[in-house]
Amino acid sequence: MSTADGTRRYLVKEIFGPTLQGEGAHAGRPCVFLRFAVCNLACSWCDTDFRPDGATRLGVDEVVAELLARDRHGSRMVVVTGGEPTLQWDGALATALAAAGFRVHLETNGTRALAAPVDWLTVSPKPRFHEAGDALLLVSGDECKLVVDETIGEADLARYEAMAFGALFVQPCAGPDAAVQLARAIDLVTRRPRWRLSLQLHKQLGLP
Question: pTM of the prediction?
């Protein structure tokens, strides 16, 4: 959405921090979060509220100012997520965040092209929920993080191993059968040793 003068306003679900990145290769690192509203997939087990309800329209300067205010200890690392952040991520915001000294870590489901560069790209495919028009497009990145539910097997891990990702992680799906999915994830890692187990550290610590 743009204003009358052409300035874009982003639909932001929340900006929060300081906190810790809870997942993947940078788990435990201090950061702030920029969470966009709206997603192009509808994963039944998603534990994130990305609905437009309650979201706020913010301009690029407002987004950067809020992140700077939240990053009071100066980590200058922002995790950009959603929803699906590539629906809104663009060059204007990338340029402004870089100018403010932020290192941008973006997490995407990989079904859309990246409109502007980031410092760290996490692709988290959701193959069970991909539609014909939402197939995996991004087949390279700094890390691949695959959420394990009952539909994910060793063949899926082999498929993503063949792509151009750096670090490879499996993460058990949250929910009532989380213990079952954890056991599945551990089993998959032991059989595919290029992969590592990712747990949601922030939830274990009671962080946002």
Answer: 0.92
